Amino acid sequence: MDILVIDGQGGNIGRQLIKSIREAFPEVTITAVGTNSIATQNMLKSGASRGATGENSVMFCARSADIIIGPIGIAIPDSMLGEVTPAMATAIGQSRAKRIFIPINHCDNNVAGVKGKTVQMLIEDAVSMLAGMIDG
Asked: Which residue, among 69, 70, 71, 74, has the nearest Cα to 133 in the 3D structure?
């Protein structure tokens, strides 16, 4: 099972995701791809199996991932203050992988229904969804 975690800016959400995934599923391969090197470094520190950075890495890794997880902005061109390129968003959208998006309200992208939920609560929901995909 190859789980691809994608994040940008400082990689904080990706870091928290990887830590939670690693605790719940120590045997899975977690590939961390950051839109920038700082995001990648922070995700690697939290237990990713391997890491890469940038547009081509997103495009390459999305082709072989079983599951892609990250903030919802990874699927929206020009989100994360322009760090997500149209090519990245397209690669994620066209991947054969199942996708789990963390609904973060940033950069003029707002998701209904997440008011009052902390990032930790959203990550717990994502890991629960992941468990259903791995186990079932």
From this structure: 69
What sections of the chain are H helices per DSSP? 12-24, 37-45, 55-64, 79-82, 86-94, 119-135
Q: Which domain holds residue 76?
A: 2-135
Neighbouring residues of 45: CB distance < 8 A, sequence distance ≥ 6 = 15
- What is the CA 38 to chain-centroid distance, rounded? 15
Q: How many domains, the chain?
A: 1
pLDDT tens-digit series, residues 6-26:
999 899 999 999 999 999 999
**Could you tell me the CATH number of the domain that includes residue 52?**
3.40.50.720
